Amino acid sequence: xxxxxxxxxxxxxxxxxxxxxxxxxxxxxxxxxxxxxxxxxxxxxxxxxxxxxxxxxxxxxxxxxxxxxxxxxxxxxxxxxxxxxxxxxxxxxxxxxxxxxxxxxxxxxxxxxxxxxxxxxxxxxxxxxxxxxxxxxxxxxxxxxxxxxxxxxxxxxxxxxxxxxxxxxxxxxxxxxxxxxxxxxxxxxxxxxxxxxxxxxxxxxxxxxxxxxxxxxxxxxxxxxxxxxxxxxxxxxxxxxxxxxxxxxxxxxxxxxxxxxxxxxxxxxxxxxxxxxxxxxxxxxxxxxxxxxxx
Length: 295
Fold this sequence. Notes:
The chain is α/β, with parallel strands linked by helices. It is built from 8 helices and 10 strands. It has helices at 15-26, 39-48, 53-62, 79-89, 96-107, 153-161, 227-249, 272-290; strands at residues 2-7, 30-37, 91-93, 122-128, 133-137, 165-167, 170-174, 177-183, 206-210, 255-257. The N and C termini lie close together (10 Å).
């Protein structure tokens, strides 16, 4: 049976999403349309390209994740010069290696631009800081005077994955000048609203896979005692508030929650055991969920 799938962001914890996909495949379900943010956009893109969960896990397992931490070359790299790079480049790492790797994996399946995918197969979320706007790619590209059919899928994924201050933002020229894009999770980390809208009859079942415990939709209060605490609370509010409200009043029964506490989203140095542990966790949660899912 065909379903639509939505994948949340979560950095390297996205390995758990692959395990969940494995459980979904074993149930005999296939994805017709997919959407995602940040790490979820990577998994969604690979699924749209025709990869199966086993293929995706092997791809992620074979690469050294720390290779994605591509710093800009400088004569002397010290903590101080790193902060200067952060100040001028707006991110510690370029993100170029990540984009090239994604591009090569997609090209192996004949996918380069959105024109190589069936219409509406893939949607990813990015945040346009220049215009204070949530952006759905490829749907919103015409707003910027950018043709959908020529826009690289890997570029869209990199935009969705550009964690603020960690990866350099993506800068695109448009009819309105230069625009700066960062991680879609800043505005919507779990865009289930793309396929599951109020008062709109669903064409097929929509299944969400979210990297958090179900209880986290009712977030505990942030403790704010200084400026650093306030910045952290601000970012968490931006990242989760919109989606949490949506989930709390919509269908939790259609969401696989995967608790991944203890692993930081930017922990790009993971042992093989921890990689496998995340995959197995996602598989376990999906298996438990699908035994009772009524679609």
